[in-house]
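chain below, 494 aa
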Amino acid sequence: MERKLELWKMIDPITQKKLTLLEQIKEAEGSVSIQTLADFNNWGRETVQRYLDLLWKDWTSGDYDGVTLIRTNNQITLNWTDYRSFYLFRLTICENSIAISVLRKLLLGETVSLTDSVNHYFVSESTFKRRLLPLKAALIEYELTLSSHHGFFFLQGEEHQIRVFAYNFFWKLYKGCKWPFTVINEQKIAAISNYLLDQVSNKRNDTNNHQIWYVLAINLTRYRRGFELNWTDDQLKLYFSQDYLAEARPWLNLFQLPEKEILFFFLLTQTQEKVLSLSLFKKAVLSFHETTNSDVFKATELFFHYFSEYIVTLSKEDQEKHYTYIFANHLFSFIFPHFSIGMSGFSTSYGVSNQFPVLANKLVDLLEKLTAETHYPLFENRDFLIPRYALFCSLLLDISSFEKTIVVYVETDYPEILENHLIQIFYDCFHHYFKLKIVKKCTELSQQHADLVLTTSLVPMKEIKADFIYFLSGHLLTEDLIKIETILRNIRER
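prediction:
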């Protein structure tokens, strides 16, 4: 099953319909009629009109530079100067939805009162609770629970699990387009980040910086509101040496930072290869885990052993080059064994199993072997590890090479140079996802059979048995590529 943080699943149906219409109006060339929207969505005109009225109210209630809605008779037009302006308008609609508003407050440690909420949204208690049902269902996947007691809502779960969920939620929702942490000064957070990670500044771009600022802001906001990490000294010793824990840190007072929060932040950075790959951090972290013979170290060593045996033979150079990548992901899985989407909502194993089913099965077998031998919980986080193992494979070879070969026969009336150009475009588009064998001569076909024939000719092909034939009326167009991809998927799934 696909598991990734999808805000859409948490939003109530009313907001979903408004956002659907907004996107369709944006994509329309010029104005679009109410009837067109009704036909496209299979809704009644009255339904479309009702949600357009709500959308219009959203727009007129705020000040959105660069975004203009125009209504004339039965037509509506959306003008926008750039995507960021459009996204800010879309973001406001999301923020004002009941589920997102409640979750946002709870993740920042704020109090959510049922009485205050129903008064704010002008809805009944039953309607308000019903709007939260999609959110409740979505949270269960991450071992979090939305509960209520004496008229107040609470988010229940392990604090470090809530934190990593919050990192994903706020980044997915805001993407750095604005600062959503009103009680924390952005410049102060930037200064703390620059001080703590000064030696890795050359490895960070502006997006990385904002992601780090979000993490620090969430940690400090929750801490200041009484939500502390309940990590014992014994737990900290799993990740830091005794000497490191005993070091004096006078700069903590300078920034008014709690030590355990900063240690947790440093631990999170170790799960990111961009930081861990720097020699300054790499040597200290890996040496500590090797010296203590930690589960993460043993898991990583065993992974490379069985990966070479079951997937691809690795050279010593390959292992050394990519060691920190595997180690960092194992460390994350060790800390968060039940969180499948990482720090930034990276897609899960569904994409791998869908695109590369043979490779996915090999990786599942590998994880079963590792789990059976070690009984380490970190290896049970398959939705997290499989796509990252697949990425590792892609660094070593073309991962489509694991899949079944699809034979494509090409026969055109083009000049040879143009025909070769067509083949090259086709190959470039699909070879990363499908294992292709492209032939231009019947004699190269086994038993005169091809899975797919691409042709510009209508001459009957009496000598070739083809499962699919696709006629090209000219150059490869976008719609051709979409249809051909569907055919290739059908061939692979047979």
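The radius of gyration is 27 Å. The chain has a mean pLDDT of 91.
thats it, cya
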